[in-house]
Design a protein that fits this description.
Length: about 110
């Protein structure tokens, strides 16, 4: 899923890679992919768990994974969402802020 959006710097000369990086800044660099490999694998594992436990659901509601602006490229973030929701029933991502909003009464 990530392959069409990769920069593939290893297959180019340095000058050509820099030119492509400047003209297409949304491409995922090899360095970024390696840096976030663990997080990418986590999204794949989450997809496997959703398939195992929610494959017969009519709708899956899930908190949208947060991405820090400027830290992760938009292409990699969208690839994570694509991996997370691949081959699943309809999934609704809800943006949260990772704080509990449940109210408990005593």
């Amino acid at each position: 899923m990530v392959e069409p959006y990769r920069l593939k710097e290893d297959n180019m000369e340095l000058e050509a890679a820099e030119g492509l990086k400047n003209s297409e800044p949304w491409r995922i660099t090899d360095n970024e992919l390696e840096l976030y490999r663990a997080k990418t694998n986590r999204q794949i594992r989450l997809n496997e768990l959703l398939k195992e436990h929610s494959s017969t659901a009519n709708l899956i509601v899930m908190s949208l994974p947060l991405a820090r602006k400027g830290a992760v490229s938009s292409a990699l973030y969208m690839a994570w969402l694509e991996v997370l929701s691949k081959d699943l029933p309809p999934i609704l991502f809800v943006r949260g802020n990772h704080q509990s909003v449940l109210t408990f009464y005593s």
